[in-house]
Amino acid sequence: MDTFDILIVGAGPAGLAAARAARRRGLRTAVVSREAPGGTCVHRGCVPVKSLLASAAARRVGVANAPDWQSALARANEIAESVSRGVAFELARIGVSFFLGEAFGVDSGQVRVESAEASTFELSARHILFAVGSLPVRPGFLPETKRVLDVDGVLRLPSLPRRIVILGGGAIGCEFASIFADFGVETFLVEREAHLLPNIDRDCGVALAGALARRGVRIVTGTVVDAVREGEDGLRVTTADGQSIEADFLLSALGRRSVPVTGGYCVCGDAADSVRLATWAEASAEAVVAALCGEEPVFAGDAIPACVFSYPEVATVGVSEVAARARGMSVRIGKAFFRANVRAAAVGETGGFAKVVADAETGRLLGASIVGPGASDSIAAAAIALKHGLPADSLAGVFTHPSFGEILSAACVDARVLTADGKRRKRPSAVKR
Ligand SMILES: Cc1cc2nc3c(=O)[nH]c(=O)nc-3n(C[C@H](O)[C@H](O)[C@H](O)COP(=O)(O)OP(=O)(O)OC[C@H]3O[C@@H](n4cnc5c(N)ncnc54)[C@H](O)[C@@H]3O)c2cc1C
Questions:
Q1: Which neighbouring-strand residues pair with 327?
Q2: Are 283 and 299 within 8 A, CB to CB?
Q3: What is the DSSP letter of 235?
Q4: With a 6 A CB cut-off, is 386 part of the ligand 1 pocket?
Q5: CA distances from residue 303 to 108, 336, 380, 381, 383 in whole angstroms, order as listed
Q6: Is the CB of 278 under 6 A from ligand 1?
Q7: H-helix or E-strand spanning residue 91
Q8: Eight-class DSSP state of 305
Q9: Is residue 103 in contact with ligand 1, taking CB distance under 6 Å?
Q10: What distance in Å separates the CA atoms of residue 205 and residue 197, rounded to the nearest whole number?
Q11: Per-residue pLDDT reduced to its tens digit, 184-229
Q12: C-alpha of residue 85 to centroid of ligand 1, in Å
Protein backbone atom coordinates (compact mmCIF):
# COMPACT_ATOMS: atom_id res chain seq x y z
CA MET A 1 0.00 0.00 0.00
CA ASP A 2 1.35 3.48 -0.93
CA THR A 3 1.83 5.71 2.09
CA PHE A 4 1.95 9.52 2.15
CA ASP A 5 2.22 12.33 4.66
CA ILE A 6 -1.01 13.81 3.35
CA LEU A 7 -3.71 12.46 1.09
CA ILE A 8 -6.25 14.83 -0.41
CA VAL A 9 -9.55 13.65 -1.86
CA GLY A 10 -10.75 16.00 -4.61
CA ALA A 11 -8.75 18.00 -7.13
CA GLY A 12 -10.81 21.18 -7.33
CA PRO A 13 -9.44 24.55 -6.16
CA ALA A 14 -9.43 23.39 -2.51
CA GLY A 15 -7.68 20.05 -3.14
CA LEU A 16 -5.15 21.65 -5.48
CA ALA A 17 -4.38 24.50 -3.05
CA ALA A 18 -3.99 21.95 -0.25
CA ALA A 19 -1.60 19.92 -2.41
CA ARG A 20 0.51 22.99 -3.23
CA ALA A 21 0.55 24.05 0.43
CA ALA A 22 1.61 20.55 1.47
CA ARG A 23 4.40 20.34 -1.12
CA ARG A 24 5.70 23.79 -0.08
CA ARG A 25 6.16 22.25 3.35
CA GLY A 26 7.95 19.23 1.86
CA LEU A 27 5.18 16.70 2.62
CA ARG A 28 4.81 13.52 0.53
CA THR A 29 1.47 14.35 -1.06
CA ALA A 30 -1.17 12.40 -2.96
CA VAL A 31 -4.40 13.61 -4.56
CA VAL A 32 -7.27 11.31 -5.51
CA SER A 33 -10.00 12.58 -7.78
CA ARG A 34 -12.76 10.83 -9.67
CA GLU A 35 -12.31 13.20 -12.58
CA ALA A 36 -9.37 14.95 -14.23
CA PRO A 37 -7.87 17.74 -12.10
CA GLY A 38 -9.80 21.02 -11.81
CA GLY A 39 -13.03 20.12 -10.00
CA THR A 40 -16.26 22.04 -10.48
CA CYS A 41 -14.31 25.23 -11.17
CA VAL A 42 -12.58 23.87 -14.27
CA HIS A 43 -15.11 21.34 -15.58
CA ARG A 44 -18.55 22.80 -14.76
CA GLY A 45 -18.07 26.25 -13.20
CA CYS A 46 -15.76 29.22 -13.48
CA VAL A 47 -13.86 28.12 -16.58
CA PRO A 48 -16.57 26.97 -19.03
CA VAL A 49 -19.05 29.63 -17.89
CA LYS A 50 -16.51 32.44 -18.32
CA SER A 51 -15.71 31.05 -21.75
CA LEU A 52 -19.42 31.13 -22.64
CA LEU A 53 -19.59 34.71 -21.35
CA ALA A 54 -16.73 35.64 -23.67
CA SER A 55 -18.56 34.08 -26.64
CA ALA A 56 -21.74 35.86 -25.58
CA ALA A 57 -19.84 39.17 -25.45
CA ALA A 58 -18.63 38.61 -29.01
CA ARG A 59 -22.24 38.18 -30.12
CA ARG A 60 -23.38 41.21 -28.13
CA VAL A 61 -20.89 43.54 -29.79
CA GLY A 62 -21.48 41.97 -33.21
CA VAL A 63 -18.09 40.36 -33.91
CA ALA A 64 -18.36 39.07 -37.50
CA ASN A 65 -17.56 35.40 -36.82
CA ALA A 66 -18.81 35.22 -33.22
CA PRO A 67 -19.43 31.59 -32.25
CA ASP A 68 -22.91 30.09 -32.37
CA TRP A 69 -24.11 28.09 -29.34
CA GLN A 70 -22.57 24.77 -30.46
CA SER A 71 -19.19 26.35 -31.20
CA ALA A 72 -19.34 28.30 -27.94
CA LEU A 73 -19.97 25.11 -25.97
CA ALA A 74 -17.22 23.25 -27.84
CA ARG A 75 -14.83 26.13 -27.12
CA ALA A 76 -15.80 26.14 -23.43
CA ASN A 77 -15.16 22.41 -23.14
CA GLU A 78 -11.85 22.63 -25.00
CA ILE A 79 -10.68 25.43 -22.70
CA ALA A 80 -11.73 23.43 -19.63
CA GLU A 81 -9.80 20.38 -20.85
CA SER A 82 -6.75 22.47 -21.64
CA VAL A 83 -6.79 24.10 -18.17
CA SER A 84 -7.21 20.65 -16.58
CA ARG A 85 -4.19 19.34 -18.51
CA GLY A 86 -2.22 22.37 -17.31
CA VAL A 87 -3.16 21.61 -13.72
CA ALA A 88 -2.20 17.93 -14.13
CA PHE A 89 1.17 19.06 -15.48
CA GLU A 90 1.66 21.36 -12.49
CA LEU A 91 0.82 18.59 -10.00
CA ALA A 92 3.41 16.33 -11.60
CA ARG A 93 5.97 19.15 -11.70
CA ILE A 94 5.68 19.90 -8.00
CA GLY A 95 5.85 16.20 -7.08
CA VAL A 96 2.24 15.36 -6.19
CA SER A 97 1.10 11.77 -6.87
CA PHE A 98 -2.25 11.87 -8.66
CA PHE A 99 -4.70 8.93 -8.62
CA LEU A 100 -7.83 8.90 -10.77
CA GLY A 101 -10.71 7.20 -8.95
CA GLU A 102 -13.43 7.53 -6.36
CA ALA A 103 -12.15 7.58 -2.78
CA PHE A 104 -13.98 6.12 0.21
CA GLY A 105 -12.84 6.71 3.77
CA VAL A 106 -11.80 3.49 5.49
CA ASP A 107 -10.47 4.85 8.74
CA SER A 108 -8.66 7.98 9.89
CA GLY A 109 -5.44 6.96 8.11
CA GLN A 110 -6.66 5.12 5.01
CA VAL A 111 -8.88 5.43 1.96
CA ARG A 112 -10.04 2.88 -0.60
CA VAL A 113 -9.87 4.03 -4.20
CA GLU A 114 -12.09 2.58 -6.91
CA SER A 115 -10.56 3.53 -10.20
CA ALA A 116 -12.29 3.93 -13.54
CA GLU A 117 -10.82 0.62 -14.74
CA ALA A 118 -12.68 -1.05 -11.83
CA SER A 119 -9.48 -1.81 -9.95
CA THR A 120 -9.54 -1.14 -6.23
CA PHE A 121 -6.57 -0.19 -4.10
CA GLU A 122 -5.86 1.41 -0.77
CA LEU A 123 -3.73 4.40 0.15
CA SER A 124 -2.67 5.48 3.59
CA ALA A 125 -1.49 8.79 4.99
CA ARG A 126 -0.78 10.56 8.25
CA HIS A 127 -3.35 13.20 7.34
CA ILE A 128 -6.40 12.77 5.10
CA LEU A 129 -8.23 15.83 3.82
CA PHE A 130 -11.56 15.73 2.01
CA ALA A 131 -12.00 18.55 -0.53
CA VAL A 132 -14.95 16.96 -2.29
CA GLY A 133 -16.90 20.07 -3.24
CA SER A 134 -20.61 20.74 -3.55
CA LEU A 135 -23.62 19.77 -5.66
CA PRO A 136 -26.45 21.85 -7.12
CA VAL A 137 -29.56 22.16 -4.96
CA ARG A 138 -32.65 20.83 -6.73
CA PRO A 139 -35.95 21.69 -5.04
CA GLY A 140 -38.47 18.86 -4.76
CA PHE A 141 -41.25 20.67 -6.68
CA LEU A 142 -39.26 20.60 -9.93
CA PRO A 143 -40.44 17.75 -12.21
CA GLU A 144 -37.95 15.12 -13.38
CA THR A 145 -37.74 16.05 -17.03
CA LYS A 146 -34.97 16.89 -19.46
CA ARG A 147 -36.47 20.37 -19.70
CA VAL A 148 -35.39 21.15 -16.12
CA LEU A 149 -31.66 21.74 -16.05
CA ASP A 150 -28.89 22.55 -13.64
CA VAL A 151 -25.66 24.19 -14.82
CA ASP A 152 -24.20 20.84 -15.90
CA GLY A 153 -27.27 20.32 -18.09
CA VAL A 154 -26.88 23.74 -19.74
CA LEU A 155 -23.26 22.93 -20.56
CA ARG A 156 -24.56 19.92 -22.53
CA LEU A 157 -27.52 21.61 -24.24
CA PRO A 158 -27.20 20.69 -27.93
CA SER A 159 -29.09 23.76 -29.14
CA LEU A 160 -30.31 27.06 -27.78
CA PRO A 161 -33.78 27.18 -26.29
CA ARG A 162 -36.19 29.79 -27.61
CA ARG A 163 -37.35 30.68 -24.11
CA ILE A 164 -35.81 29.86 -20.74
CA VAL A 165 -36.76 30.53 -17.13
CA ILE A 166 -33.89 30.85 -14.68
CA LEU A 167 -34.67 30.22 -11.02
CA GLY A 168 -32.46 32.24 -8.71
CA GLY A 169 -30.99 35.72 -9.19
CA GLY A 170 -27.68 34.98 -7.50
CA ALA A 171 -24.30 34.97 -9.24
CA ILE A 172 -24.89 31.86 -11.37
CA GLY A 173 -28.44 32.81 -12.36
CA CYS A 174 -27.33 36.30 -13.37
CA GLU A 175 -24.32 35.05 -15.37
CA PHE A 176 -26.57 32.69 -17.34
CA ALA A 177 -29.23 35.40 -17.81
CA SER A 178 -26.46 37.55 -19.31
CA ILE A 179 -25.28 34.71 -21.58
CA PHE A 180 -28.75 33.77 -22.82
CA ALA A 181 -29.71 37.43 -23.38
CA ASP A 182 -26.62 37.92 -25.57
CA PHE A 183 -27.44 34.74 -27.52
CA GLY A 184 -30.91 36.15 -28.22
CA VAL A 185 -32.87 33.73 -26.00
CA GLU A 186 -36.06 35.06 -24.44
CA THR A 187 -35.01 34.92 -20.80
CA PHE A 188 -36.99 35.15 -17.56
CA LEU A 189 -35.14 35.48 -14.27
CA VAL A 190 -37.06 34.78 -11.06
CA GLU A 191 -35.63 35.87 -7.69
CA ARG A 192 -37.40 35.40 -4.35
CA GLU A 193 -35.88 38.50 -2.74
CA ALA A 194 -36.74 42.08 -3.67
CA HIS A 195 -33.66 42.51 -5.89
CA LEU A 196 -31.04 40.50 -7.77
CA LEU A 197 -27.79 39.46 -6.03
CA PRO A 198 -29.50 39.66 -2.62
CA ASN A 199 -26.33 38.80 -0.70
CA ILE A 200 -24.45 41.94 -1.72
CA ASP A 201 -25.00 45.69 -1.84
CA ARG A 202 -28.53 46.43 -3.01
CA ASP A 203 -27.37 49.08 -5.51
CA CYS A 204 -25.42 46.40 -7.39
CA GLY A 205 -28.40 44.11 -7.91
CA VAL A 206 -30.56 47.05 -8.96
CA ALA A 207 -27.98 48.25 -11.49
CA LEU A 208 -27.49 44.77 -12.92
CA ALA A 209 -31.26 44.24 -13.20
CA GLY A 210 -31.49 47.48 -15.20
CA ALA A 211 -28.70 46.41 -17.54
CA LEU A 212 -30.20 42.93 -18.09
CA ALA A 213 -33.69 44.36 -18.58
CA ARG A 214 -32.36 46.71 -21.27
CA ARG A 215 -31.14 43.61 -23.13
CA GLY A 216 -34.60 42.06 -22.91
CA VAL A 217 -34.34 39.87 -19.79
CA ARG A 218 -37.71 39.76 -17.98
CA ILE A 219 -36.92 40.01 -14.28
CA VAL A 220 -39.44 38.84 -11.71
CA THR A 221 -38.45 39.63 -8.10
CA GLY A 222 -40.10 39.30 -4.72
CA THR A 223 -41.88 36.05 -5.54
CA VAL A 224 -41.17 32.35 -5.87
CA VAL A 225 -41.95 29.77 -8.49
CA ASP A 226 -44.54 27.51 -6.93
CA ALA A 227 -45.29 25.10 -9.76
CA VAL A 228 -43.67 23.82 -12.92
CA ARG A 229 -45.77 21.67 -15.25
CA GLU A 230 -44.62 19.96 -18.41
CA GLY A 231 -46.92 20.00 -21.41
CA GLU A 232 -46.40 18.72 -24.95
CA ASP A 233 -44.56 21.82 -26.15
CA GLY A 234 -42.70 22.87 -23.04
CA LEU A 235 -43.04 24.04 -19.48
CA ARG A 236 -45.60 26.21 -17.78
CA VAL A 237 -44.03 27.96 -14.79
CA THR A 238 -46.26 29.71 -12.28
CA THR A 239 -45.21 32.04 -9.51
CA ALA A 240 -46.76 32.53 -6.08
CA ASP A 241 -48.05 35.98 -7.12
CA GLY A 242 -50.02 34.48 -10.00
CA GLN A 243 -47.74 35.03 -13.01
CA SER A 244 -47.54 32.33 -15.65
CA ILE A 245 -44.56 31.89 -17.96
CA GLU A 246 -44.16 29.44 -20.84
CA ALA A 247 -40.67 28.21 -21.62
CA ASP A 248 -38.76 25.42 -23.37
CA PHE A 249 -36.37 24.93 -20.46
CA LEU A 250 -35.89 25.91 -16.84
CA LEU A 251 -32.47 26.38 -15.29
CA SER A 252 -32.39 25.85 -11.55
CA ALA A 253 -29.69 28.12 -10.11
CA LEU A 254 -30.80 27.99 -6.50
CA GLY A 255 -27.41 27.45 -4.93
CA ARG A 256 -25.36 24.43 -3.94
CA ARG A 257 -24.99 22.13 -0.95
CA SER A 258 -21.82 20.62 0.48
CA VAL A 259 -21.03 17.00 -0.38
CA PRO A 260 -21.43 15.26 3.00
CA VAL A 261 -18.28 13.78 4.53
CA THR A 262 -18.63 11.28 7.36
CA GLY A 263 -15.98 9.64 9.51
CA GLY A 264 -14.46 12.65 11.24
CA TYR A 265 -12.08 13.60 8.39
CA CYS A 266 -10.72 17.11 7.91
CA VAL A 267 -12.81 18.92 5.29
CA CYS A 268 -12.16 22.11 3.31
CA GLY A 269 -13.48 24.16 0.38
CA ASP A 270 -17.11 23.94 -0.78
CA ALA A 271 -17.53 20.73 1.21
CA ALA A 272 -16.93 22.69 4.42
CA ASP A 273 -18.02 26.28 3.85
CA SER A 274 -21.19 28.07 2.84
CA VAL A 275 -19.26 30.66 0.79
CA ARG A 276 -18.80 28.94 -2.54
CA LEU A 277 -15.93 30.62 -4.35
CA ALA A 278 -12.80 29.08 -5.81
CA THR A 279 -10.66 31.67 -4.01
CA TRP A 280 -12.40 31.00 -0.70
CA ALA A 281 -11.94 27.24 -1.19
CA GLU A 282 -8.22 27.77 -1.83
CA ALA A 283 -7.75 29.98 1.22
CA SER A 284 -9.68 27.55 3.42
CA ALA A 285 -7.51 24.65 2.18
CA GLU A 286 -4.30 26.59 2.85
CA ALA A 287 -5.48 27.29 6.41
CA VAL A 288 -6.37 23.63 7.04
CA VAL A 289 -2.97 22.41 5.82
CA ALA A 290 -1.23 24.99 8.03
CA ALA A 291 -3.27 23.80 11.02
CA LEU A 292 -2.47 20.13 10.24
CA CYS A 293 1.21 21.08 10.27
CA GLY A 294 0.88 22.68 13.69
CA GLU A 295 1.09 26.25 12.40
CA GLU A 296 -1.21 29.15 13.25
CA PRO A 297 -3.66 29.21 10.31
CA VAL A 298 -4.28 32.54 8.61
CA PHE A 299 -7.65 33.01 6.91
CA ALA A 300 -8.72 36.51 5.86
CA GLY A 301 -12.20 35.53 4.64
CA ASP A 302 -13.59 39.08 4.91
CA ALA A 303 -11.04 40.33 2.42
CA ILE A 304 -11.78 37.74 -0.28
CA PRO A 305 -13.51 39.48 -3.20
CA ALA A 306 -16.29 37.98 -5.30
CA CYS A 307 -17.36 38.76 -8.83
CA VAL A 308 -20.40 38.10 -10.97
CA PHE A 309 -19.00 37.98 -14.51
CA SER A 310 -22.25 39.05 -16.15
CA TYR A 311 -22.38 42.05 -18.47
CA PRO A 312 -21.83 44.36 -16.72
CA GLU A 313 -19.49 42.76 -14.19
CA VAL A 314 -20.32 43.16 -10.51
CA ALA A 315 -17.48 42.80 -8.01
CA THR A 316 -17.57 43.21 -4.27
CA VAL A 317 -15.50 42.79 -1.13
CA GLY A 318 -16.13 43.36 2.58
CA VAL A 319 -19.37 44.68 4.05
CA SER A 320 -22.16 46.42 2.18
CA GLU A 321 -23.69 49.71 3.31
CA VAL A 322 -26.86 47.96 4.51
CA ALA A 323 -24.93 45.26 6.41
CA ALA A 324 -22.67 47.86 8.05
CA ARG A 325 -25.63 49.97 9.17
CA ALA A 326 -27.49 46.86 10.38
CA ARG A 327 -24.48 46.10 12.58
CA GLY A 328 -24.73 49.59 14.05
CA MET A 329 -21.48 50.73 12.43
CA SER A 330 -21.05 54.44 11.80
CA VAL A 331 -20.03 54.64 8.14
CA ARG A 332 -19.36 57.11 5.38
CA ILE A 333 -20.22 56.17 1.81
CA GLY A 334 -18.30 57.23 -1.26
CA LYS A 335 -19.63 56.77 -4.77
CA ALA A 336 -18.32 57.49 -8.27
CA PHE A 337 -19.83 56.81 -11.68
CA PHE A 338 -18.28 55.40 -14.83
CA ARG A 339 -19.77 58.19 -16.89
CA ALA A 340 -16.99 60.38 -15.42
CA ASN A 341 -14.26 57.77 -16.01
CA VAL A 342 -12.05 58.53 -19.02
CA ARG A 343 -11.22 54.94 -19.92
CA ALA A 344 -14.89 53.96 -19.73
CA ALA A 345 -15.74 56.85 -22.03
CA ALA A 346 -12.96 55.80 -24.44
CA VAL A 347 -14.38 52.28 -24.81
CA GLY A 348 -18.02 53.38 -24.66
CA GLU A 349 -18.85 51.53 -21.44
CA THR A 350 -20.09 54.37 -19.24
CA GLY A 351 -22.76 52.52 -17.23
CA GLY A 352 -22.14 51.58 -13.62
CA PHE A 353 -20.40 52.86 -10.53
CA ALA A 354 -18.10 52.13 -7.62
CA LYS A 355 -19.22 52.45 -4.03
CA VAL A 356 -17.06 52.26 -0.93
CA VAL A 357 -17.99 51.95 2.72
CA ALA A 358 -15.55 53.52 5.17
CA ASP A 359 -15.54 53.81 8.94
CA ALA A 360 -16.83 57.32 9.71
CA GLU A 361 -14.31 57.90 12.48
CA THR A 362 -11.10 56.34 11.23
CA GLY A 363 -11.69 56.31 7.49
CA ARG A 364 -10.78 52.61 7.37
CA LEU A 365 -12.13 50.84 4.31
CA LEU A 366 -14.85 48.36 5.28
CA GLY A 367 -16.22 47.36 1.90
CA ALA A 368 -16.35 48.16 -1.80
CA SER A 369 -18.51 47.27 -4.79
CA ILE A 370 -18.04 47.99 -8.47
CA VAL A 371 -20.55 47.53 -11.28
CA GLY A 372 -19.09 48.06 -14.72
CA PRO A 373 -16.01 47.50 -16.88
CA GLY A 374 -12.92 45.97 -15.26
CA ALA A 375 -14.76 45.39 -11.97
CA SER A 376 -13.31 41.89 -11.49
CA ASP A 377 -9.74 43.22 -11.65
CA SER A 378 -10.11 46.62 -9.99
CA ILE A 379 -11.71 45.15 -6.85
CA ALA A 380 -8.36 43.56 -5.94
CA ALA A 381 -7.03 46.94 -4.81
CA ALA A 382 -9.90 47.30 -2.35
CA ALA A 383 -9.30 43.73 -1.14
CA ILE A 384 -5.67 44.57 -0.33
CA ALA A 385 -6.70 47.70 1.59
CA LEU A 386 -9.29 45.70 3.49
CA LYS A 387 -6.90 42.85 4.26
CA HIS A 388 -4.37 45.26 5.74
CA GLY A 389 -6.84 47.52 7.55
CA LEU A 390 -5.93 50.55 5.41
CA PRO A 391 -8.02 53.71 5.12
CA ALA A 392 -10.15 54.27 2.04
CA ASP A 393 -7.84 57.19 1.26
CA SER A 394 -5.03 54.73 0.58
CA LEU A 395 -6.69 53.83 -2.74
CA ALA A 396 -6.61 57.40 -4.02
CA GLY A 397 -4.06 57.82 -6.77
CA VAL A 398 -2.82 54.23 -7.06
CA PHE A 399 -4.29 53.51 -10.50
CA THR A 400 -2.86 54.48 -13.85
CA HIS A 401 -4.67 57.03 -15.95
CA PRO A 402 -6.82 56.40 -17.78
CA SER A 403 -7.98 53.13 -16.25
CA PHE A 404 -11.22 51.56 -15.08
CA GLY A 405 -9.70 51.22 -11.60
CA GLU A 406 -9.72 54.98 -11.19
CA ILE A 407 -13.42 54.63 -10.42
CA LEU A 408 -12.38 53.13 -7.08
CA SER A 409 -9.99 56.00 -6.33
CA ALA A 410 -12.77 58.44 -7.15
CA ALA A 411 -15.21 56.67 -4.82
CA CYS A 412 -12.59 56.61 -2.05
CA VAL A 413 -11.90 60.31 -2.49
CA ASP A 414 -15.65 60.89 -2.29
CA ALA A 415 -15.71 58.99 1.03
CA ARG A 416 -12.76 60.85 2.57
CA VAL A 417 -13.29 61.24 6.29
CA LEU A 418 -9.88 62.56 7.37
CA THR A 419 -7.91 65.63 6.44
CA ALA A 420 -4.22 65.30 5.61
CA ASP A 421 -3.30 66.13 9.22
CA GLY A 422 -5.57 63.38 10.55
CA LYS A 423 -8.39 65.65 11.71
CA ARG A 424 -11.90 64.59 10.95
CA ARG A 425 -13.60 66.27 8.01
CA LYS A 426 -17.15 67.50 8.45
CA ARG A 427 -18.05 66.78 4.84
CA PRO A 428 -16.04 65.41 1.95
CA SER A 429 -14.66 68.32 -0.05
CA ALA A 430 -12.59 68.89 -3.17
CA VAL A 431 -9.03 67.61 -3.04
CA LYS A 432 -6.41 70.39 -2.93
CA ARG A 433 -3.28 69.86 -4.97
C1 LIG B 1 -21.53 27.66 -12.67
C2 LIG B 1 -20.50 28.01 -11.63
C3 LIG B 1 -19.73 29.13 -11.80
C4 LIG B 1 -18.78 29.48 -10.85
N5 LIG B 1 -18.04 30.59 -11.04
C6 LIG B 1 -17.14 30.96 -10.10
C7 LIG B 1 -16.34 32.10 -10.28
O8 LIG B 1 -16.46 32.81 -11.28
N9 LIG B 1 -15.44 32.42 -9.33
C10 LIG B 1 -15.29 31.68 -8.20
O11 LIG B 1 -14.45 32.00 -7.36
N12 LIG B 1 -16.04 30.55 -8.00
C13 LIG B 1 -16.95 30.19 -8.92
N14 LIG B 1 -17.70 29.06 -8.73
C15 LIG B 1 -17.54 28.30 -7.48
C16 LIG B 1 -16.32 27.37 -7.56
O17 LIG B 1 -16.38 26.57 -8.72
C18 LIG B 1 -16.30 26.48 -6.31
O19 LIG B 1 -16.39 27.29 -5.16
C20 LIG B 1 -15.02 25.68 -6.27
O21 LIG B 1 -14.91 24.83 -7.39
C22 LIG B 1 -14.98 24.83 -4.99
O23 LIG B 1 -13.78 24.12 -4.98
P24 LIG B 1 -13.65 22.74 -4.18
O25 LIG B 1 -12.26 22.28 -4.44
O26 LIG B 1 -14.07 22.92 -2.78
O27 LIG B 1 -14.70 21.75 -4.85
P28 LIG B 1 -14.85 21.25 -6.35
O29 LIG B 1 -14.30 22.22 -7.31
O30 LIG B 1 -16.29 20.87 -6.50
O31 LIG B 1 -13.93 19.96 -6.43
C32 LIG B 1 -14.26 18.78 -5.76
C33 LIG B 1 -13.74 17.62 -6.58
O34 LIG B 1 -13.78 16.44 -5.78
C35 LIG B 1 -14.23 15.37 -6.57
N36 LIG B 1 -14.78 14.33 -5.68
C37 LIG B 1 -15.91 14.41 -4.93
N38 LIG B 1 -16.06 13.30 -4.20
C39 LIG B 1 -15.00 12.51 -4.48
C40 LIG B 1 -14.59 11.22 -4.03
N41 LIG B 1 -15.28 10.53 -3.13
N42 LIG B 1 -13.47 10.71 -4.55
C43 LIG B 1 -12.73 11.38 -5.46
N44 LIG B 1 -13.07 12.60 -5.91
C45 LIG B 1 -14.18 13.16 -5.43
C46 LIG B 1 -15.29 16.02 -7.46
O47 LIG B 1 -15.59 15.22 -8.59
C48 LIG B 1 -14.59 17.32 -7.80
O49 LIG B 1 -13.74 17.15 -8.92
C50 LIG B 1 -18.63 28.67 -9.69
C51 LIG B 1 -19.40 27.51 -9.54
C52 LIG B 1 -20.33 27.18 -10.49
C53 LIG B 1 -21.15 25.92 -10.31
A1: none
A2: yes
A3: E
A4: no
A5: 33, 21, 9, 11, 5
A6: yes
A7: helix 69-93
A8: -
A9: yes
A10: 5
A11: 999 999 999 999 999 999 999 999 999 999 999 999 999 999 999 9
A12: 17
